[in-house]
């Protein structure tokens, strides 16, 4: 098929109206943008799987948009488009479909009001004054409930989140009740849109993180109780959101607009070949490392991303979006999306990966990269500087960071910069990354790479169990007592691990079995001490505004550093003194006040009082509210 002048097509045929199937009980209007198609035919089906079409309707072209109106109540029917371009004819799902049948082959025409769970009208997104007030907990839907250590009824499903009073095999509370008690504010769900590599028609155990987009506006069917009925997945995902909101938890959706799983066989290609993808020297560019890049800078591709985000935010009352490989999306698209999303939800939180997965033809000045974050005022980016300075490079198992044996003056400078949210500080001779702590996400563990605990096991050879736990707790203290947005992976607080059969640990468990990926809820009982420590740190962060400042000027005015020895240091933060000791021996500090964190415990209530002579344990912090 021909590669066309897409700039000229954008100029001539941009369409700002609503696309997809616009339903009402009296009629459904279908609109698909494909200005260079020879013909487009609408096909209507009684189900989303193998039935033959009930009817096919030739669509009419006007201003680049093919249109058809069917005067009947089509709620619950399924549809596709048959598109002919340059003499080649192919059938495809609508890229704007709001739901689908099994495996996302056919779109569903759906009265969204019919897919509302009881009480949906009364639920609303959570309030968030500023990003630094958030505490984010990254979670995979299947991981959450599939393991037998948890007594869930709806294993691996959306509905597991709506279960109350769930316990592990030792009788400890788990599930959403536990997450609420931990004190986090937002659950970040790995992709829950319809992804390609899990067969929804199979009952065999299957796993994928979901970074293989098929249908962006359609919830994943394998997480529903009936993947054949497109209304069920919509209703049950709403039940998940509603259950979270009832407990005061926001829901952040992980979105992957930088690439699609298929390229030549994708619905975008079938509707308009080449238009939605970047080309580089006549081939598909591959800055995603997944075979293609979505051309967000083209007008109708930009419109699609913005339309999709707004649809998802409104339909599911979402509290935020996390953008995969955000550096492959252009700045203008994301800024325009943020403007519209703020109208839908003024408290929405937006953040992403400020990097790419490879080279791209998109001009660096247009990329939503970390180095351009000042031009994305509504967005935050993950701090790989924080991650790698705390635990060592993710690209080397044995590389040591500040907490696990690699402390030094230079690494301490990185930790101090992170403690200040990378906004720049006169005592730190490192450049700033952003102008606001609301633009940086601090983390040491996510779904990618080794878990924090596994990294410690591999990089601290010969250490004792106490040392691993101490290093983990020190890392947690740095996350929650630093300026910026704290982020942890589910189970990190009870030393989540991903061991492989035969030895070693999984670095990239994107399609590993449940035995690797599932949350082992029995570890909550085994490692209660670090969990309680995380919980105490979160409570401190909520209670004391010193640890979630909103402005760079405030940080520079209220934080003052003092070097100690071999990379250890203290910091005066408002009314607090924080002593950070990554060393293998204790440090004695002269300070008067109430202790809130030491090597053993963390609490938002004073643990004890020190009067001039205090000890900061090895590989730990000491947090004292000064008298």
Q: Top keywords for this entry?
A:
627 residues; alpha/beta; eight-stranded parallel β-barrel; 29 strands; 24% helix
Estimate what percentage of residues fall within beta strands: 15-25%
Q: Mean of residue pLDDT?
A: 97
Largest sheet: 8 strands, parallel, barrel
Terminal residue distance: 75 Å
Q: What does the model show?
A:
By secondary structure, this protein is an alpha/beta fold. 24% of the residues lie in helices and 21% in strands. It has 15 helices and 29 strands. Strands 10-11-14-17-18-19-20-21 form an 8-stranded parallel barrel. Strands 22-23-24-29-26-27 form a 6-stranded antiparallel β-sheet. Strand 23 and strand 24 form a beta hairpin. Helix 6 packs parallel to helix 7. The termini are far apart.
Task: Describe the protein's topology.
Blueprint: H1 6-13, E1 20-23, E2 28-33, E3 39-45, E4 55-58, E5 60-62, E6 65-70, E7 78-85, E8 88-92, E9 107-108, E10 136-139, H2 141-146, H3 175-182, E11 186-189, E12 193-195, E13 213-219, H4 230-246, E14 250-255, H5 267-271, E15 279-280, E16 283-284, H6 299-316, E17 320-323, H7 331-344, E18 349-352, E19 380-382, H8 384-391, H9 409-419, E20 440-442, H10 452-459, H11 465-481, E21 485-489, H12 514-517, H13 522-526, H14 528-543, H15 552-558, E22 559-563, E23 569-573, E24 576-581, E25 587-589, E26 592-597, E27 608-611, E28 614-616, E29 620-626
Parallel strand pairs: 10-11, 10-21, 11-14, 14-17, 17-18, 18-19, 19-20, 20-21
Antiparallel strand pairs: 1-2, 2-6, 3-4, 3-7, 5-6, 7-8, 7-9, 12-13, 15-16, 22-23, 23-24, 24-29, 25-28, 26-27, 26-29
Helix pairs in contact: 6-7, 8-9, 10-11, 11-14
